[in-house]
Write a structure and sequence with these properties.
about 450 residues, Aspartate Aminotransferase, domain 1, Aspartate Aminotransferase, domain 2, seven-stranded mixed β-sheet, four-stranded mixed β-sheet, 15 strands, about 15% strand, globular, binds 4'-deoxy-4'-aminopyridoxal-5'-phosphate
Length: about 450
């Protein structure tokens, strides 16, 4: 039972938590994180944890970075807020837009600012619809996403998300959003099918969906280069080339959701580079500011921008934008964060450390409860099973990962339970000794779990 005066009890009283069993939470209370430094966060009881998830796939440069606090303070004292509506702007938004367009792996023409990954993807849907209207193709509005893709939680972006928990109880997905095959070879590959054959089948499934719906009705396809919140699903290397060939054939826009992959996660600046993806629209957030403040953006190429610009006087300006879009303090922090990523060569560091990280995670494959280990760069997951051959886990679904997550956290490492998977996505500043601690704590947690099964 909680002390009614403790911070935990107050939190339970006043704070309805995301993705949390509310009744169970009333009994146990949250872990209250009080401070962070580098790879670590500390709770109000003084327990220190390695944040092996970079706080929801976000904090690239590590916690407690003074340069980011200073950048925020300087900007807040100079211009605390101004908007970017109706021909107004401010220097941080202009500089950040310029920086992002210059960094993009393919030629982009404009940045459009939003405040979260969900808002960026929601805005993408509006922009794509607006463009189709501008082109005189009002029937070309459908968007294809993928089963287990994660693109956010607003009504529209949750519709793009391909996970049941984000749909059921909300009467989603909304009309015009479709979900195609998840490129998870280990789960979805057929007996005797090679990875390449599987990738071809994913592309064929996509083409069949386009044909069935009518190619003239499909406006865009969205995907994360590597799926994150669906369980860190790494596609076959050839997958994206095959998908892009189909999209080209039917003149369908490609949207890369770089919210997790962007800014170094896969060992290159963008996940698009790792897989040779040439998107028309990219959405970025999270590591853009290392989540010191909320900010996100869409990067759009001329194929998207020009029709919108041509038509904006005729069909009305793009009637969409948030008060805080491109907030000057968040933009100043993002600029400083990107400068740190470059100065400290964190993307190169991610690439250098990736083999060590992947090998260390890979060493868990021999554990009796581990069905698959997967990953790329500094992102990875293990999928838990009770029967390796049948690839089945304990019922109810997710029970094993939830328990393992708790045991590993008690061993001082924060991971994330996603279905029957445990995900790992450490800050880009991670070093070998942290990797060792993460993997040791995970193995110990899995051993403890094994004794209870
Ligand atoms: N896209 C991806 C790939 C994400 O991982 C997330 C968040 N996990 C989102 C979009 C949504 O971002 P937000 O939580 O900032 O709305």
């Amino acid at each position: 039972t909680l002390n009614p005066n403790s911070i935990e009890a107050r939190d339970v009283a006043y704070h309805l938590h995301s993705y949390t069993n509310a009744r169970r939470h009333e009994e146990t209370g949250p872990i209250v994180i009080e401070s962070g430094e580098g790879m670590y966060v500390t709770d109000t009881d003084g327990n220190r944890y390695i944040e092996a998830m970079a706080g929801l796939w976000s904090v690239a440069v590590g916690f407690g970075e003074k340069r980011l606090a200073d950048a925020a303070s300087r900007q807040m004292q100079k211009l605390n807020f101004y908007h970017t509506f109706t021909q107004k702007s401010h220097t941080p938004a202009i500089e950040l837009a310029e920086k992002l367009v210059a960094m993009a792996p393919v030629k982009m023409s404009k940045a459009y600012f939003t405040n979260s990954g969900s808002e960026a993807n929601d805005t993408m849907i509006k922009l794509v619809r607006y463009r189709s209207n501008a082109l005189g193709q009002p029937e070309k509005k459908k968007i294809i996403s993928r089963i287990k893709g994660y693109h956010g939680v607003t009504l529209a972006s949750a519709s793009l998300t391909g996970l049941p928990n984000n749909h059921r109880s909300f009467d989603l997905p909304m009309e015009g959003i479709l979900h195609t095959t998840c490129p998870h070879y280990w789960r979805e590959g057929h007996e005797g099918e090679s990875e390449e054959e599987f990738a071809s089948r994913c592309a064929a499934d996509l083409e069949a969906m386009i044909q069935a719906e009518g190619p003239e009705t499909i406006a865009a396809f969205i995907g994360e280069p590597v799926m994150g919140a669906g369980g860190v699903i790494v596609p076959p290397k050839i997958y994206w080339a095959k998908i892009q060939a189909v999209l080209k054939k039917y003149d369908i826009l490609l949207v890369a959701d770089e919210v997790i992959c962007g800014f170094g996660r896969t060992g290159q600046m963008f996940g698009c580079q790792t897989y040779g993806i040439e998107p028309d629209i990219m959405t970025v957030s999270k590591a853009l500011s290392s989540s010191y403040l909320p900010i996100s953006a869409l990067l759009i190429n001329d194929r998207v921008y020009q029709p919108v610009a041509d038509q904006s006087s005729e069909i009305g300006t793009f009637g969409h934008g948030y008060t805080a879009s491109g907030h000057p303090v968040a933009a100043a922090v993002a600029l400083e964060n990107l400068a740190i990523i470059e100065e400290r060569r964190l993307v190169e560091h991610a690439a250098e450390l990736a083999p060590y990280f992947q090998d260390a995670l890979g060493s868990l494959a021999d554990h009796p409860l581990v069905g698959e280990v997967r990953g790329v760069g500094l992102i990875g997951a293990i999928e838990l099973v009770t029967d390796k051959k049948a690839k089945v886990a304990m019922q109810p679904a997710g029970a094993m990962a939830a328990k393992a997550f708790g045991l590993i956290q008690a061993n001082g490492v924060i991971t994330r339970a996603i279905g029957d998977c445990l995900a790992f996505c450490p800050p880009l500043i991670v070093e070998k000794e942290h990797v060792d601690t993460i993997v040791d704590a995970t193995r110990k947690g899995l051993d403890e779990l094994l004794t209870t099964i």
